[in-house]
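Something for you to look into today, if you have time. What I am after is a single protein written out in full by you. I want to see for myself how the chain folds. Could you add the entry underneath, on a fresh line?
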Amino acid sequence: MKLAFDVVVVGGGASGLSAGIEAAAAGARTVVLEKNAQPGGSSRLSVGSINAAGSSLQKRAGIVDTPDEHFADMDHYMGAFASRENLALRRLLVDNAAGTLDWLMSLGLSFHGPTADPPHRHPRMHNVLPNSRAYPYYLGREARRRGVDLRLGARVLRLLRDEDGGVRGVQAMLDGRAVEIEARRGVILAAGDYSNSRELKQRFRPELAAIPGVNPTATGDGHQMAEAFGARLLNGEVIYGPGLRFAEPARPNFVRRLPPSWLLGKLMQLALDHLPVALFRPFVMSFMTASLGPEAALLRAGAVLVNADGKRFADELAQPGLAISQQPGGRAWLVFDDRVARMFSGPPHHVSTAPGVAFAYLPDYRRHRKDLYHCAGELGALARSVGMAPDTLRASIGQHNAALADGAAANRGPVVQAPFHALGPLESRIVITDGGLAVNASHQVLDEEGAVIPRLYAAGAVGQGGALLAGNGHHLCWAVTSGRRAGRFAADESPPQQQDGSFRPSGARSTSPGT
């Protein structure tokens, strides 16, 4: 059995859906192949923010900001890998970010902001409403409106080689059968990162190989297929993590299960823009969909990490993520006294960064994540509430306090003031990876010699091309921006080979309210 399309997109996350929309808008018969049972990829699990300079929301708020300033501010995040970044792709990102945000809003997505996100010099973080599920919801709806054939449960096995050495299509599993799918104009790889690929992590960062990714299905499929075809992979060792994340609730609450409708998003946007945040904050906190984690400041203030047995197992200030992964069940709990609890009950000390409202404090966890929060008048009772051995927890905290008695770590403080609190379980996770295939400014994939592989494109994490996207709101903005561009270029049977890769986006649609 064989199928034929003009453009084949591998992956149905924000990048792949954006690519499919633009390819179809350009007149190409397009299919998006998503291995999971639902679209969305990592965008569904993300905070959902986009950093953009010169956006319409900034202008409405009277904020003067430019892509040049955004470009310069990204220097603050580069660290040890700064010399290896593809600055041309960073330039492409910041120049297109505001247009990407406007395009998303034209499809029906709502955003709150812009909000401050230091060290960015201007408020340019835009937070999606009501939650990150809005991305697959609205992008999927637009893809269907454009006539994109969206196939779920369709795992792509390999790329097919044409006589000229380029790509002629893919082989995929459809309904339990291996099927060849012809791509007359091109294949776009948009299959996400490799944060949960043990093989690729072992190759680039073996010490992180056993630590799972936030997205369990981010297994680097596109990276590996392209490498097997002769593509070059850049910056494979740039892996963010291990980070600490609170476990997801066993069952989302009612508010979280509401659909990300246009009306709900607009109501939230109006409320956040015009009402005191305190009035609307509890409702917004119920929409948190990201896997939140504790700030390092909580550990520096005196919180102690213990495992499921109640035993302290690591120096909390020495990147404990690796140690957590080696504990029973790969889990740990934060234990702290009332001094720390009071400190993190309001500004300026927050437990986590939360979408839409910027910060989450201890009372937010007490109210909205009762599965994570425990409190008791003495350590033994706290241990029983969590399910730990009381004697072990008492001994661990006692030993910790004794070690602090000489004042060597006075800034942390002992755990002595009742009542005592615990947050957890915590898990160690790889957040995201920045390694991607080498691409030019038209998102065409390059081989080891730097030559274009005919009819092969990459977008999102697969097509990161050496760009380094640390900082809030950059990965998601790149996913949508590069996906749109790759879709348009793939649909054009003779895309530009040069590095400038000028882009002609489809017109924004006029969107009416929908649910």
Summary: The chain has 17 helices and 22 strands. The longest strand covers residues 177-189.
